[in-house]
Automatic annotation (TrEMBL):
Protein known as: dTTP/UTP pyrophosphatase
Enzyme class, UniProt record, top EC level: hydrolase
Pfam families associated with the record: Maf
Cofactor(s) required, per the database record: a divalent metal cation
Site (Important for substrate specificity): R10, T70, Q154
Subcellular location(s) per record: Cytoplasm
Keyword Membrane: no
Gene this protein is translated from: maf
EC number(s) reported in the record: 3.6.1.9
Gene3D superfamilies assigned: 3.90.950.10
Length: 197
């Protein structure tokens, strides 16, 4: 069995392009960054801790667990999900007219945790200048509310993106290339999984 350790509808949708059958089991962990922890260390630790949290509860040794974490980073600062309109406005102002990084880490392991693979995919995203009025209108769409950095590249927020270098699927929340490579290493063939009878 394949288990996705995330409640994210975007990750669920992306994983469904690789495999037909999987179970969704969100991991409940403390996502507070450690002091002096770099953004790279943080996102990798989050993915690993999510995978390990699921592995400890009612899984078979041969089950494959996929966990991921995405952070929007500018000037070495992690921008999480907004807590309010003011918070979202602050983040979008910080991103306006600049290039930031989106770091998406992946951890794939078996239920016994004796096989663990991790990676961190870093993409550069450049925003055009965004006005305060646009930020206000964008907030009212409801899209920024549960998104790291207060935007969704695959949604309305894509209109702010002038240029992107890296993995689009990673920016959305799950790097398809890396996940497919890991699945192959764990004996799962995404192409075979997608054959329709």
């Amino acid at each position: 069995m394949i288990i996705l350790a995330s409640a994210s509808p975007r990750r669920k949708e992306l994983l469904s392009t690789l495999v037909n059958a999987f179970e969704v089991r969100p991991a409940d962990i403390d996502e507070t960054p450690f002091s002096m922890e770099s953004p790279e260390e943080y996102v990798i630790r989050m993915a690993r801790e999510k995978a390990e949290a699921i592995a400890k509860h009612d899984v078979e040794h041969r089950d494959v667990i996929i966990a991921s974490d995405t952070s929007v980073v500018i000037d070495e600062q992690i921008l999480g999900k907004p807590e309010s309109f003011e918070h979202a406005k602050e983040m979008l102002r910080a991103l306006s007219g600049k290039t930031h990084q989106v770091m998406t880490s992946v951890c794939v392991c078996n239920g016994g945790l004796n096989r663990v693979a991790t990676c961190n995919v870093i993409s550069d995203v450049s925003f055009r200048e965004i006005s305060d009025l646009e930020i206000e209108h964008y907030w009212k769409t409801g899209e920024p509310c549960d998104k790291a950095g207060s935007y969704a590249i695959q949604g309305v927020g894509g209109m702010f993106v002038k240029h992107m270098s890296g993995s689009f699927s990673a920016v959305v929340g799950l790097p398809i290339y890396e996940v497919s490579q890991f699945l192959s290493e764990f004996g799962v063939s995404p192409l075979k999984e997608n054959i329709r009878e």
